[in-house]
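Page 47, continued from p. 46.
Same chain as before, 176 aa.
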Amino acid sequence: HPYGGTLGVDAAAVDSGDGQTMEAVHSFCRGRSARKVLAVKGDGGKRPWFERSQSKAQKGRLWIVGVDGLKSHLMARLNRGNSIRFSNTLPASWYDQLASERAIVRYSHGQPSRRFERIKGKRAEALDCTVYGFAVRGILNVPWSARAEQLRTAIALPTPKPRPRVIASAWMESRA
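Result:
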């Protein structure tokens, strides 16, 4: 954490998907809902970022995540370059997975439709986890400015120095 110390887990999302494990995931999350373990399912298209399922069978225990809207938001923030902080211990393969999809525009009946398509041969677990993380953050509706102030005062450390926007690579020096 930038102010020192470690953070706990406020909530967790478990992807229920469409496969054979869907009922097992729902059952697992149902018993842990008080601890904010949420069953989620991603759905593309023009959807809200997150909404409770209206299915009578799920009784509001499943959260439908509008992945295309969240991916657009995530990509816009990544393009700004400094609005999301990642751990410095993540391997390069994690960032490769984060950038595993691209936005495309398809036309259906003359109408443009923007969606995300996986780049062939790329894995996307990091992207999916980040999108679900944004969804859970919205579902929790925590006042994040108050949370930052709590962390700053509880740890009583000075504000961290801003990180440089460009990090020099030793790789470039070794090629010369």
